[in-house]
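Record format v2
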Amino acid sequence: MSLDAQIAAVQAEIDDAPISDAEAAEAFRVRFLGRKSGAITDLFSQLGTAPPDQRRDLGQRLNALKQSAQGRLDAGLAALATETTSGATDLDLTLPGRVPAPVERGSLHVLSQTLADIQDIFRSFGFAVARGPEIEDDWHNFSALNFPANHPARDMQDTFFLEPPPPDGRGVVLRTHTSPVQVRVLEQTEPPVRVIAPGRVFRNEAISYKSYCLFHQVEGLVVDEGVSFADLKALLQAFARAFFGASDGPAREARMRFRPSFFPFTEPSAEVDVWWADDALPGGGRWMEILGSGMVDPNVLTNVGVDPERFTGFAFGMGVERMAMLRHGIDDIRLLYENDVRFLKQF
Amino acid sequence: MNISLRWLADYVDPGLPPDEVAERLTMAGLEVEEIVTTGPALDGVVVGEVLDVRPHPDADRLQVCDVQLAEGAESVQIVCGAPNVAAGQRVPVATVGTELMLPARDGSGLEPVTIKKGKIRGQVSMGMICAEDELGLGESHDGILVLDAGAPVGVPLADWLRQRAEMPGDTVLDIAITPNRPDATSHVGVARDLAALTGAELVLPEVSVPTVGGDTADQVTVQIEDPEGCPRYAAMIVRGVQVGPSPDWMQDRLRAVGVRPVNNVVDVTNYVLHEIGQPLHAFDLDQIAQSTIIVRASRPGETVETLDDQERKLPEGTLLICDAERPVAVAGVMGAANSEVSDATTDVLIESAAFDPARVRRASKALGLQTDASYRFERGVDPTRQPWAAARAAALLAELAGGEVVPGLVDEVPNPYQPRTVSVRPSRVARVLGAEVPADEITRLLQAIGFDVEGDRGSALEAFAEAALQGTVAAAVEEAGDAGLTVTVPPFRLDVEREVDVIEEVARLWGFDRLPTPASTPVPLVPAGDTPSARLLDRVRQRLAALGFREIATNSLVPTPTAETFADAAWTGIEAPPIETLNPISQEMATLRPSLLTGLVAVASYNQARGAGALRLFEAGHVYRRSADASETVAGYHEHTSLVLGMSGTAERASWDGDARSTDVYDLKGVVLDVLADLGIDDVQETPRPAPDGLTAYALDLHAGGTRLGAIGRLADSIADDAELQAELFVAELDWDAVAELAGRDQPPAYQPISRFPTVERDLALVVPQGQPAGPLLDTIRQSGQPLLQDVRLFDLYRGDGLPDGTQSLAFTLRFGADKTLRDKEVDGRVRRIVKALEAQHGATLRS
């Protein structure tokens, strides 16, 4: 039989051979692909006897034959694997588990690492950690924080409202900031209070390289007798030195400035910028906003039953994403939520 | 909001460059987000002096000039083609390297050309003496631009022109106006702050406000039926106007602040709005039925066609401006098409009113229309400024549109403005700010922005007398000194109501940067801890990372169909619908995730598609459901922290001492139970669900102490196919609140003395029917092995040769121990009891 005819015969045999179980698969492998006596191996060894002008063509056909056999085998094995697991009836799930060794070094998300650093610094300054729900009512997210109904201040934060629509228009929301935790803490605790409240917050904004529909904040609240704006400044400066100054980053000196701003729940209010040195920029750098802060508005204290004549306080809030992006030079917030392993493993 | 510096210069001239102006405003609370400069840049163009001019040896029309480009510097040679160049002139010189916009050779407009050092017909030329048009300063190309003889040699031309206010173009500041600054939504408002900050004088345009009544009052009637909504309505009439384009200067200014010029009438109203912050509306008086304006709330079902040609349905109670027959404007938001100024208009009725901020805001929201007018009314306009603004607009119309102002004024004021006074204690200023700001400094700062301040002597005396009666004179003096200042708030600061609002004004003008930063601060003596749940979660995070897992962070908002699929009660243990948002950004993010599996599956798919062959992932975060449970923090909604884990692909890589192995469910089970054991939860009940069920092909539910902790399983094929997963994904999700509650209950472990006696190990090989799960066998061994059995481990599972059909063999290692040295007899007896129990309960036999 010519080599040509043999190839055709083996191809037909391959197509018909059953792979119904593991034994049949192994028999198939030995019959066609075996290195010593496999049919295809045998055909390859005859290639030298063929007329030279046909060798090239025959060689290509043999390679195709081999691929065809390998393909059938792989498909058959895959089908067998599925059969044994998808039914799952013969798996004894009560068998003890095993703890596998790591294949790669694991990692914590850069947001977790950044948040942990921020928390560590504030814990060292005597701050406890408080937490609150991400689904909030109008009172805690807005009203108690001195956002009047029908006031432009409510436009400062694009808000997600939740089903069902409330009859009075004061809907339940995804919290737009961690400030409601201030209210929850003061409702439950008598001053002195010294807490931070980290957590996820939501804004109904178009997604771009600089904004996402959610982010993480760390809120801070200090209420005591004799607390002043000067104390707020001193604390935040100490924080910035600890957070930015610890690294060899460009903001080692942690130059800061406090700009008057507005938040309904603080008065006076300030936004805080750090100087970000960058030789490529005119002026050698630029101011980057890192947080909002201010003296707790007396209305907020009154709303939670704290006497604003006796107690004063300050509050601040910073974005964890912003801090992480500044620190690591990440230029697109969406990277943080894409979870590409090649990104995650860098931290 | 855009502020043109050219325009601003009409009201204040601080003599500062634009970036300095921006800095001062920013540091006083008017944050300049962007500075945009229009007009020619003129970088590299300096004032030069022509010292000598001589004919070019090889070109009739060219001349060779020596030009000095800096005081005391050597002159350079420049070849010039202009006939009017002459020695002694001061001229603009584009130095080498300067980029100019010059006419393109192909005549297609302008193109950038860089001035190079070169030779023109053999003569060196080190720059270019420029004509007006070459600099973008004008149209003229009749020779070079000859500057004033006083122009200082060497200074940048732009500086010289700016100094003489001849620099074309403008600088526009984009200011982020916070909601507490209604006063700053205009050029005059910003100028007021800038004047206060720099000590420069604030100059307002001269406006002659007519007295109320006169011909105007005879020619138009204003009735306010809704005085709550409209505390003031002023009107003036200008007759005989010629509607046409407004002059260039006005168009330039409007364009600079982002307003499209329309015609002189509309432009004037917009101009006054951006000048003083009072929105105006111009009606075509001929279209106002019976020349009557009625301000009232809308009735059910009313509609109006606004200027943008949209028919708009009005919510009931919307504040309307009507004539005798129909609505002609939505108050404070937008005029109606029926009465708008057109080319045919000759007589104009100017509306200058104050409206209730909340009413305008509701209307603006309901109609989805935010206009320059509504923006200002929402924040609150100066309730005393209406006649001034009407008169200002009338005068501009007369000047620019050729109209004649009808004498007099209609000024309906159903709710007259009452000036507000606030008492401010300097001691309180010091307490809030942490710095002593002297009373006279407080007074000076406040007066600079229009507040009236009086030291309140009367109450000071009263306080002194009272304190002196009750205590020492020293205390009385302090008390009296603290009696405070009486501050009258200007009408353009409706936001300032309380002492603390005034303190904020003092602070921002005094400068936050001047406040001290104390080196230490009192700290309350309470433990600064975290919640146990968060503390334990941190521990688990670290542990999982050490086991090779990567933490991911995924969106809480997912598509509604995804949320419905993953709200599977068998997987999550919760039978309740997911929570939808009322106003999603997109369908992709419409509903809150009921399970962290949504994100995990997506991330696994994303990374598999990018070649990740071994995945170990976890995430901790909130999951959410509707709830009828009365104990929820926010009624109707449930949320708790969840922990999800996923594994797929390679479990062990091939290496010199072992083969590669793929992940199976026992890898994930091992990790999950290890994490639980680490938290002290080691008595976990396992309930297999071997058949496909919802999200899983098979699963194992975990309970402890009667509480459901979560489940482990393999993701169902249908879900995996939908997500285009390329390898089996094993998943586990734990209710972290439940886990933490169980783990957190533990007291610190009490020390157990370590036994001094040796332990004894025995192996036990059993034959059981195939399909007999190992878990119950282990449970039986543990129970019947008490009290000597300390540990049991399954070390072998075998099916095949040497065993009866339909059976399998399991082999265990048992470790016994006690507070004494165990004798073989005791151990043997215990093993026999164990075997007996296994025979009785599971039909197991000892393998021979």
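The radius of gyration of chain B is 42 Å.
The longest strand of chain B covers residues 637-652.
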